[in-house]
Design goal:
This protein has 147 residues and is of the alpha+beta class. 37% of the residues lie in helices and 20% in strands. The chain contains five helices and six strands, in the order ααβααβββββα. α1 crosses α2. The longest helix has 14 residues, at 51-64. Bound molecules: zinc ion (3 copies). One zinc ion (ZN) is lined by residues 68, 70, 80, 93, 95, 97, 108.
Amino acid sequence: MAVNQQIQQLLKRNQLSITDSRAKILELFLQQQGALAHADIEKKSGAGFDRVTVYRTLQTFVEKGIIHTIPTADNSILYALCKDECTEGHHHDHHVHFVCRNCNTTICLDDTVSPEITLPAGYIAQDVQVVINGICKDCSISKTQLQ
Ligand SMILES: [Zn+2]
Ligand SMILES: [Zn+2]
Ligand SMILES: [Zn+2]
C-alpha cells in the first residue's frame, strides 16, 4: 500500500482530520525502521513545524494508539509506531525494545514479549518496559561481512 494511502487510512480510522503536520509526521514513522525522538521529527519533517505543533501531534497519536513511547536511559522519550491492536487509550505494546550501541537505533521487537516478572508482596506493577542494549541485526551482519 502506498504511504499516502496508509496515512489517510490511519487518520480516518482514528477520526482525525488530515493536517499537514499529522500527515508529514506519520509519513516519517511509516518510512522509519526504528523509533524517533522529538528532535528527529522536528529535523526530518523539514516543513518547519514548530515545537508545539510537533508535540501536540505526537500527544494526539499516543492518545489514539497510533504510536507509543519508549523510555531511554537519558530520560528523553522516543516514539514508535504501534501495531494494529492498539486503540484509543489502550496500548498493547508489551514488546521488548532494543537499543543498538553501534548505530544508536531503537527498534521495536514486536514479536518478543516482555517477560512476566514476579514482584515482592505489596508491589503493584503498572507498566513494564524492557529495554535491551546490544548490537542490532543490521550491524551484526555488516560486522561479520567485514571479517
Ligand atoms: Zn500502542
Ligand atoms: Zn545497529
Ligand atoms: Zn515499541
